[in-house]
Amino acid sequence: MAEELCVQLVPLFNHLELTKQRQIEHLVHHQNVTKGTIVIQPSESKRLVIVKQGRLRLYQLNPAGEEQLQRIITTGEYVGETWLLGMKNTNSYVEADTKSEICILHRNDFLHLLQEQTDISFKLLEEQAGRVISLRYQVQLMALPTIGERLLTYLNHLTVIQGSSTIRLPMKMKDLSSYLGTTPETLSRQFSQLRSNGKIIRNHHQITLTNQKAN
Known about the structure:
Blueprint lengths: L17 H8 L3 E5 L4 E3 L6 E7 L1 E7 L5 E8 L3 E2 L1 H4 L7 E5 L3 E7 H10 L1 H26 L3 H16 L3 E3 L4 H7 L4 H13 L3 E4 L2 E4 L6
Antiparallel strand pairs: 1-8, 2-7, 3-6, 3-8, 4-5, 4-7, 9-11, 10-11
C-alpha cells in the first residue's frame, strides 16, 4: 500500500522528492479535532496547520465581536504561514468546521525547513501571492454598496473560476453571508430576489446564471 503522508497533500511540499517528504512528515504532529475546536487563535498562532481530512474556517472578529469569514480551508490546504513568518495575529481564528484530521508544524521546525529547502520558500511566495489576490477580491466585493451587487458579482466570479455558467457554492450559506458581510436571512432574500428576477436558477448549492454580467 502506498504511503499516505500528510505533507504530500500540500502544494508547498508535494513537489519535493519522497525522501524529503518523509523527513518533513516526521516533524508534523497529527491531531483529530471535533467541530468547533479552535486550532489557531491570537494567543497561539505560531504553527502551520495542514488539513489532512475535513474543513476549517479562517475568520476575524470585528470590534463588535462579529465574525468576518476570510476563507474555508479544506483537505490538502494549510493555514498559519503568515504568522509563522512574523506577522502578529491580533484577531484571527481558525476553527474546525467539521470533525477533522489536521497536521501541525511548529515555528522552529518550519523556519528550519525554509533555511534548508529554498524551493519551499519560492513555493511559499507563490502561494502567498494567491492569498493576497483573494483578499483583495474580497475587499473589492465589500466596497460594493448593496448586498445584491456583492452576491451577483461573486456568483459571476465563480463562473469564471469553475468554467461554467452552472456553478456550485463552495461555502455554506452561513459562511457565504459572513464572507459578503451580511446575515444568512438577508442573503437568502437576495437569492430569492435574483431568482424572481430571472437572473439565476437555483437548486440548493447548484446555481445557473442566466446572465453572467453583474448589473
